[in-house]
């Protein structure tokens, strides 16, 4: 590894974070009139006026601000904006009658969808814990623990283990199929690992540690592919693999066909998730003070799969998804997968010390800075063609916000600092 | 079936309940000085003075009083004594700091053992729900729900399903082995089914119904023997069968050898548990308004195993335990097993309508009334030889109280009434 090159890449990331990404959000996200955050911006960074505030976007913004503040950025300004978002979350999104956060409000704070969705609640735990760690304001962890308790009461499947994911307002479990009440996903369980890690970091409580260990066990022994260690997206309640369908309440991009089912619905893995899972697991082990040596073999398998199949050595960047055994189905480029693979590959360099991960990192780094970043505006394009032409061009949306982009910079800089010493 | 004989047996049971059992307790159980119930009595019914009040004995007394009141006995007096016990439970046994009930107090209400044991908490849920159903006093269900919520938060194993059973005061999970922190038992999960049934009957809440369905699923598909449908006593966390060991905190009779492990530790089933499981399941199905037809095949297997192996056709009554595939290891007679088999066999007569279950019922009924009842005193001997000579002679103790005896009479009378119409 060329240290000069490393330092250059680190500076490029720092410059992007400090002078582009954070300013993009600081100057537009605060909704002074109605509280909370504005989250819908077009290619030029103009507010599109879309009348919604989603639980995911509000909590992810809170995480972004809190974690960047904790990492030393923003001179206190980020903590102030974070507090503004917590006020909105607790005063407007929290359901005082049944507990938990509503799924979707309008800008003024009226409820548009009152369902209780665990995906969103995992980000509530994550961001509110991070907020308390960053600022010392105890309201964050108080509500993070309330959500944790509700999740244990209503969410856990005491027959097969794991968590149910889709509930009505009163925490009645949703019906089967596209309502999602009979499914379990990689996505939710991975984000619960992320959430419980930060909750445990914040509280040090045994029950938070125990549930973190249990969800790691689920991910390792139920959710990732037994042979390839790649993530399997959807399961039935007994952890048999379910065809990957679109839920009525979606939380991400709709990349499904008309029928609401993926092509290759039962043999599909996503490189961004795999790398994200690996580095989040490594971070969890760190917080748990567990021995990473026991997991290096696993990390090697996951990162080798990522660089052997997910990285595009012709046009740069990371593909969307492919079969577990190797190969690619979808060669477009999603912004968040680039973000997660950046962090993961730097983890691989540090943990496994092989030059090939560094080469792959540089590939993705270049693709991000040359193609994905919307120059002069400062945020990332959400979806690009294989060659790097923007397909979707909005900068902010209920499901596309600053969490992946800012976190990728904060975490990558931290890792490159470590490598440069 | 000879109806005249049935009516005679019913009258014998009614006479025992109304003129012997209930008076035995009504006249001695109320601790006017310290609150709660006195629970330690010798063969003559004299207070032994043992200085303890166990969570199990206090909650079981509460269940006994509440359920007998609800069934129409006692002219209101039982409800009054029940209220007296609830006061003690909520004011003295409840842990205001960490939630949940202490395991053991002395008579005055000082804490002797502050651990949180799920076996005892299952009886807290059961008795407090029954108390509210019987009296309308909402304090019962309020605390039953608090215990349910704590159990879901701290007790559920979100990896393998089911519940952990042994905790420290602050709900930290106990260590492995004889501390019990790595084991799961038939006993606790069966009593949780019983508890959730009455909780759901009381609240009608979806989450209580759902957890009841899940624990039934666990009992049917993890806990009873896949072939013989007999109960397997102990498991490791992943539901592999564990050798039956004695825990540091015991909740029943110590019938273990010096080594703290049962003979035949991994091939052992107990007839009283099997019959109790079957009739409690049938009752749960009734409360759930589920179709019993789907379970008749299962009930037939369980009751056939009970009468073919557990009933002593030579000396009368029910043996202690034997191998799953049939046969007997221990031919002594425990009081509670007689009690549960009485109810179960009447269920079998009603559900399956076969004369052989009635003949077996009459056998156990005669053994109970001729040998187990301590004549002139009114309660049952806890343990007898195969021929019916008392081995242990106390009438009350932290682990031997009125719950099995009174419930057996209340439930048997109810079933015989149904059969006599």
TrEMBL record, chains A, B:
GO function terms (MF aspect): isomerase activity
A Pfam family recorded for this sequence: GlcNAc_2-epim
Isomerase is among the record's keywords: yes
Stored Gene3D superfamilies: 1.50.10.10
Record key words, sorted: Isomerase
TM spans (from-to): none
GO BP, one annotated term: carbohydrate metabolic process
InterPro entries, A to Z: 6-hairpin_glycosidase_sf, 6hp_glycosidase-like_sf, AGE/CE
Keyword Transmembrane found: no
Protein family (similarity comment): Belongs to the N-acylglucosamine 2-epimerase family.
UniProt protein name: N-acylglucosamine 2-epimerase
């Amino acid at each position: 590894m060329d240290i000069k090159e490393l330092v250059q890449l680190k500076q490029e990331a720092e410059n992007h974070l400090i002078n582009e990404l954070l300013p993009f959000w600081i100057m537009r996200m605060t909704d002074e009139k109605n509280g909370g955050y504005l989250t819908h911006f077009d290619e030029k960074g103009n507010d599109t006026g879309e009348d919604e505030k989603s639980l995911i976007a509000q909590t992810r913004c809170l995480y972004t601000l809190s974690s960047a503040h904790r990492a030393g950025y923003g001179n206190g300004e980020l903590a102030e904006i974070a507090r503004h978002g917590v006020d909105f979350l607790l005063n407007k999104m929290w359901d005082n009658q049944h507990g938990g956060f509503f799924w979707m409000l309008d800008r003024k704070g009226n409820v548009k969808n009152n369902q209780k969705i665990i995906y969103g609640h995992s980000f509530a735990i994550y961001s509110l814990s991070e907020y308390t760690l960053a600022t010392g304001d105890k309201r964050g962890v108080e509500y993070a623990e309330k959500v944790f308790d509700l999740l244990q009461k209503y969410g856990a499947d005491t027959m097969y283990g794991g968590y149910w994911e889709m509930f009505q307002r009163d925490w009645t479990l949703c019906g089967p199929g596209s309502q999602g009440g009979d499914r379990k996903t990689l996505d939710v369980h991975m984000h619960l690992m992320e959430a419980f890690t930060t909750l445990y970091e914040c509280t040090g409580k045994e029950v938070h540690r125990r549930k973190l260990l249990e969800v790691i066990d689920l991910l390792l022994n139920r959710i990732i592919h037994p042979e390839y260690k790649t993530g399997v997206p959807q399961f039935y309640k007994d952890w048999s693999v379910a065809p990957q369908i679109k839920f009525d309440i979606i939380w991400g991009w709709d990349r499904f066909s008309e029928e609401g089912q993926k092509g290759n619905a039962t043999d599909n893995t996503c490189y961004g998730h795999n790398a994200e899972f690996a580095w989040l697991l490594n971070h969890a082990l760190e917080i748990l003070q567990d021995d990473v040596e026991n997991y290096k073999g696993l990390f090697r398998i996951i990162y080798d799969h990522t660089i052997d199949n997910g990285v595009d050595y012709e046009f740069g960047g990371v593909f969307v998804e492919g079969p577990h055994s190797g190969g690619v189905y979808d060669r477009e480029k999603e912004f968040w997968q680039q973000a997660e693979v950046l962090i993961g590959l730097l983890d691989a360099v540090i943990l496994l010390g092989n030059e090939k991960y560094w080469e792959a990192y540089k590939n993705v780094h270049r693709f991000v800075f040359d193609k994905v970043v919307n120059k002069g505006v400062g945020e990332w394009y959400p979806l690009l063609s294989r060659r790097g032409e923007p397909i979707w061009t909005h900068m902010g949306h209920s499901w596309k916000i600053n969490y992946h982009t800012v976190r990728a910079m904060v975490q990558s800089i931290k890792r490159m600092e470590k490598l440069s010493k």
